[in-house]
Design brief:
This protein is an alpha+beta fold and 674 residues long. It contains 29 helices and 12 strands.
Length: 674
């Protein structure tokens, strides 16, 4: 425990992680009971919908999912937009961009919406909602304690771990899901609280549900060693099945976005389409534990396996794409079990002498498809082990998950979780972009920009230049909306006779087009505008379009420099650059057209200062940090540069090339790229 306390930073944080685990375990119990209650009200039974639905009137089977969808649409429209979809991407975004902050109402709204969706037949899992609920609980506790952004992110991730752990009675898999998918960080300060939360959530869940696995896993019969490589083939198949699942979900999400109906009624429309499928295939109703148990037991014929393999991704995608609330973790296991079961039947038909059971192949397929859709092979492997508690399955599961992940990731960069984030312009693999996207323009902008009305005389414009360091003056209409901006160069021709022209030439005559960004946008968006427009300063507007501030390239660079000194942007080691082979070929791209590079001090640079170099005006690049003995330091403009120092510079590639060439001289090793 001492190591955990040390890693977490203080006992209070450890206690908070345990408390979040307890709350998440209770939330998991509450969600399960709410789903049972809704299902009883909807079809008259809490379990076995496969047996109940065929006995119900066809209109009830058709309309119950639509009614549930309509209720979810109302919740999403009036209470919380976050209830729509499977929730995990929203948690990932909150951890990566918002310091782990999630609105407090999300936990309650997501619980109710998910219970309505699943209880009325939505073909989704309850693990996605409980991940979002657990994360929101962790976020709420962290905010109440006033934790720093780093610790708040950790506690939010810990809540997600508790959700998976409680839902599957699998604390190890839950912890690694949070580390592998949500936090994307296995460092010790994150590992300790996440594990503690998963443990305490599982304890609460086991106290209520018992210590049995999430599925009824029979003893598996594994064949001789020569049959193990067949798992490679199954992994290959499951990789393509995973891609198909992701593709169907993405296609239907785009389809429902284009439907010209209010978002409030789209879940009802999706529920109606799902009801049509349920009339023929009641196995698609809700979570589908009974079908998964039958698959693992090898009790389903190949025709039923084949039909469900084709329809389950469709049913899940309809539910989520239309705006329903639920998870894709369990559906991935469901689809994988179907694929593995079919594969087992095929193997036994082609090689009658094989002795590996159909259920064993189903288990391997479950882990492989989960790994392929989530790009989380460690989680999939550990979940399979925790479900069976049988080490004999490890080798085939490892083979299948590795191959499925390689196939899925090799053919499609995004997982089922990150695809939605990529569509929003969020790339979790670009750390430097995430840093900038986590900062709002309103946090950096100057709130009193130099501005004049378009009918202001020239002497008023000149007075603003004299009283400001911005190098630009904004021109607005009488209502405060920007119509242009002017620089000292724009009025050169008019300042020859200011007394004569002051009453004739007005600001509107000497301004050019204005470049603006909204104050609610991220600094990454602002940097795009600065780069694209080639401006030193741009206007900042409110949501109505009125001018409320100004953002300069220098202030943006200062923010980047501060982040660099914290190791969040320029902390790329030389070893990593050597391993990836990127040292001399490509720079660290901040945004379109802007790179970061490093330049060793030697030769003509020795003895000079950053101020004497005047790189901004001479080469249009900026020195944002200085590395001394490998450690990022603040830029001291008048400090003499010594051999062994390293300048961290930012600018456009062509300007950086010219700077390095002219300052350091020609040669094959002119500067290192960061």
């Amino acid at each position: 425990m001492r190591d955990v306390v040390s890693a977490a930073g203080e006992p209070r944080f450890v206690v908070a992680a345990c408390f979040v685990g307890l709350l998440t375990g209770l939330a998991s119990i509450a969600l399960a009971e709410m789903i049972h209650l809704v299902q009883v009200l909807a079809i008259g039974a809490a379990d076995l919908p496969v047996l109940v639905l065929p006995a119900l009137p066809w209109a009830q089977v058709l309309l119950v999912p639509a009614a549930g969808g309509l209720a979810v649409g109302v919740i999403g429209h009036y209470l919380s937009r976050e209830v729509r979809g499977h929730g995990v991407p929203e948690v990932m975004e909150a951890v990566a961009l918002r310091g782990g902050r999630i609105r407090k109402r999300v936990a309650v709204a997501k619980s109710v919406a998910s219970a309505l969706t699943i209880g009325t037949g939505g073909s989704v899992g309850r693990e996605g909602p409980i991940v979002q609920i657990g994360a929101s609980v962790g976020s709420a506790v962290g905010q109440a304690l006033g934790l720093s952004a780093d610790r708040l992110r950790t506690l939010t991730s810990a809540g997600a771990a508790g959700g998976i752990a409680a839902a599957f009675n699998a604390p190890i898999a839950g912890a690694f899901f949070a580390l592998e998918v949500i936090a994307r960080n296995f460092a010790t300060p994150t590992f300790g609280p996440v594990v503690l939360c998963a443990v305490f959530a599982t304890l609460v869940s086991r106290a209520y549900f018992g210590d049995s696995p999430a599925f009824e896993v029979p003893p598996f019969q594994m064949g001789p060693l020569w049959e193990t490589p067949l798992a490679l083939v199954l992994g290959l198949i499951c990789g393509f099945v995973s891609l198909g699942f992701i593709g169907v979900l993405g296609a239907l999400e785009r389809f429902f976005e284009r439907i010209p109906t209010p978002a409030l009624v789209k879940p009802a429309l999706g529920g109606l389409l799902l009801g049509v499928l349920l009339l023929k295939f009641p196995e698609l109703y809700g979570v589908g534990y009974e079908t998964m148990d039958a698959t693992l037991s090898g009790n389903l014929p190949w025709r039923e396996l084949a039909f469900l393999l084709a329809l389950k991704p469709l049913a899940t995608s309809i539910t989520l794409a239309s705006g329903g609330s639920g998870g894709v973790f369990l559906p991935s296991l469901y689809v994988g079990g179907l694929a593995g079961g079919l594969f087992g039947i095929a193997v036994n038909a082609v090689f009658p002498e094989t002795t590996t059971s159909q259920g064993a192949y189903a288990l391997v397929g479950m882990a492989a498809v989960l790994a392929g859709t989530s790009h989380a092979p460690i989680t999939a492997l550990l979940l399979a082990f925790e479900m069976t508690q049988d080490y004999v399955v490890i080798l085939p599961v490892m083979l299948a998950t590795a191959v499925a992940t390689l196939v899925a990731r090799g053919l499609k960069r995004d997982s089922i979780y990150t695809e939605k984030l990529t569509q929003r312009g969020i790339d979790l693999d670009r750390r430097e972009d995430l840093v900038l996207r986590g900062i709002r323009v309103s946090e950096v902008m100057h709130k009193q920009p130099p501005a004049v009305r378009s009918d202001a005389p020239l002497d008023v414009v000149l007075a603003n230049f004299l009283n400001s360091d911005f190098g630009a003056v904004f021109v607005t209409n009488p209502d405060g909306f920007p119509v242009g901006q002017t620089s000292i160069h724009d009025i050169k021709s008019a300042i020859g006779d200011p007394d004569a022209l002051g009453a004739i030439v007005v600001a509107g005559d000497v301004c050019e087009s204005v470049a603006t960004v909204r104050q609610s946008r991220s600094l990454a968006d602002a940097l795009d505008v600065l780069s694209r427009e080639g401006r030193e300063v741009i206007g900042v507007t409110d949501e109505d379009g009125k001018l409320v501030g100004a953002l300069t390239l220098r202030s943006t660079i200062d923010v980047i420099a501060r982040r660099a000194l914290r190791g969040e942007v320029v902390g790329v080691t030389a070893a990593a650059a050597e391993q990836t082979g990127t040292r001399d070929r490509q720079g660290l791209r901040l945004t379109r057209g802007l790179d970061l590079r490093t330049l060793d001090v030697r030769g003509p640079l020795t003895g000079q200062t950053v101020r004497s170099l005047d790189v901004r005006s001479r080469w249009k690049v900026s020195v944002i940090a200085l590395r001394i003995d490998g450690v990022d330091q603040g830029v001291e403009p008048d400090r003499a540069l010594n051999p062994g120092d390293t300048l961290v510079v930012m600018g456009e590639a062509r300007d950086l090339d010219r700077f390095m060439r002219e300052v350091w001289g020609p040669g094959p090793n002119q500067g290192r790229l960061l």
